[in-house]
Amino acid sequence: MATPTLRLPAGTPARTPAPGRSARAHTGRTLPVFVLSALLATGQMYQPIPLFTAMKADWGVGSGAMTWIISAFAFGYAGGFVLFGPLSDRYGHRRVLVTGMIVAAVVTLLTGLAFAAPVAVGLRVVQGLVVGSIPPAIMAYVATRIEPAHRAVVTMSVATSFLAATVIAQIVSQAVVDSFPWRTVFLGSALLFAVLAVALRTVMLDDAPAGRDKPLRHSYAAIPTVLRIGALLPLLAAGGLSMAVMVGIYTGIEIAGLIEGSGELLALRAGALPVMLALPLLAIPLSRLSKPGQVMLGVSVAAAAMVAATFEGSHLAVLTVLLAVLVGGLGVIAPAVLQSAGELGGESRAAASSVAMFSFYVGATVGPIVAATAAPHGFPALAWTLTALLLVAFALTLIGVRIPRASAPA
Fold it and tell me: Around 74, how many Cα atoms within 13 Å sit in the side-chain half-sphere?
């Protein structure tokens, strides 16, 4: 995806950090690698959706097994945030991130070689768990090593990459499976993980972690502290519901067989890309709203698109536009929740980011299940169900606004 290029004026000397202040990373070099890493990591959840037909034929299973290919990864992914996120503060964001990319390459390779659906589901849980080490380390690094003036744009760009992976991974998978065996998608992803591990090790600053002298349990003690931040919890729930809608709509369209031609499916998926590419440009205008205000705006836009889709979902062109609007609304929510978690988490920002992402992908785990339940009753039933989830997200955000905001204690 397109990212802004941020350069220092020619001749500007490298900054020496003041005592107690972390060195700052070069935004222009770091951001593109982070964006690609975020796309690849989160894209692993969605890339099997266009492969369903080929995988079912290869393994001789039904559609129900395919939804578990998605949910299994989402379950492991959510767990990986909680397991590895706090460790990035303890052992260093660079170390955890690079190691996670290398191990992800191995597990992704094994997943692509799975000979049966049950084996693939098990490997997908492990794959999600390992890949779950990547996003929290990225977001914590952004919060501590990127120049404060650049953080809003970088956070929006990376968070948008997580969202854009929903569509980009499906487009790439569909293009590959049209010409090659479905396993090629996983083998290619494994190679990209290895390449990006080298790139990340090159562009990231050396780690300067704190707290290694404390017991390991101290790294996880921050999680209960984050869960006691009353103003954050409704936003986390709203973020989870929005992710359920994101995964549910694309999985439901595939299950319902609403659009069968590969060209039409490609157009439907690609239609949201311009909106995703534009989202980072909204970072500054959106910053004038409070974080809950941004969430409510995003939910309102997404809900309006879903309601309209219940009436016009049978028209490809209209549905393509409405899905783009839906994605635009949902794309505003995730960065707002992530930034709220970082602000309210205080010194436990990595743990707070991990909990936020955990909530997103708990929702992503639910999305395919909701789709499998509602889609067989027709697309309007699916759209109304997802609209109901968005209305609940709006109500939760309103509740959160009424709770005093206070950061977690250091």
Answer: 26
The tally of CA atoms less than 13 A away on the side-chain side of residue 138 is: 34
Domain boundaries, the chain: 27-205+219-401
- pTM (2 d.p.): 0.73
Between CA 95 and CA 100, with CA 98 as vertex, the angle to 5 degrees is 100
Q: What is the CB neighbour count within 10 angstroms for residue 187?
A: 16
Domain 27-205+219-401 is found in CATH 3.20.20.80: no
pLDDT digits (tens, 9 = 90+) for 377-409: 888 889 999 999 999 999 999 988 887 765 555
Place of tokens 């869960």: 227
Find how far residue 9's CA is from the centre of its chain. 33
> Contact, 101 vs 194, CB < 8 A?
yes
The distance in angstroms from the start CA to the end CA of the chain is: 36
For 215-238, the pLDDT digits (tens) are 667 667 777 777 777 778 888 999
